[in-house]
Amino acid sequence: MSYLQSFNNEIILVGDFNIDILSTSDTVRKYQNLVSSFGFSVLDADPTRVSATSSSCIDHIISNAKLNVQTVCCAINDHYGLAVEGVNICRSTFLKEKSDAATLKHLSNRTIS
Q1: What is the C-alpha separation between 49 and 30, in angstroms, rounded?
Q2: How far does Cα 46 stand from its chain's mean position?
Q3: Are 92 and 63 in contact (CB under 8 A)?
Q4: How far apart are CA 54 and CA 45, in angstroms?
Q5: Which residues touch 17 (CB under 8 Å, ≥6 apart)?
Q6: CB 13, CB 43: distance < 8 Å
Q7: What is the pLDDT of residues 59-84, one digit of tens each?
Q8: What is the spatial distance between Cα 53 and Cα 50, in angstroms, rounded to a whole number?
Q9: Domain spans of the chain?
């Protein structure tokens, strides 16, 4: 995360982190402390995986920007989707793994809504 801070831009990380932030476990507390120590926040707190017997929030959007995040029901997966409103990506940098090294891919003039 310190590498991402070096970009001096708004950063958005999205993924299935398999840490249920609805839980009050020590792991969740450490995870949230780690994220916040770099100036980031976990922006979603609604269940993203719901079954007949349980619900959890294991899919996260982590950012150093204030964003409006919504959970979206999805009938094609056992996880709900996460939507970020009003994010405009213009000349942003994305990381993509290739072998052991990270390569940069530049996107420009694209909007995610």
Answers
A1: 22
A2: 13
A3: no
A4: 15
A5: 31, 58, 59, 60
A6: no
A7: 998 999 888 888 888 766 778 878 78
A8: 8
A9: 2-84
Residue 25, Cβ density class (10 Å: 0-12 exposed, 13-18 middle, ≥19 buried):
exposed
Report field, pTM of the whole predicted structure over 0.90: no
Backbone angles phi, psi at 38, to 5 degrees: -100, 5
Q: Say how far apart CA 17 and CA 38 lie, in whole Å.
A: 17
Q: Which CATH fold would you assign to the domain 2-84?
A: Deoxyribonuclease I; Chain A (3.60.10)
Buried b (16+ CB within 10 A) or exposed e, 84-113: beebeeeebeeeeeeeeeeeeeeeeeeeee
- Helices assigned H by DSSP within 1-113: 2-5, 26-37
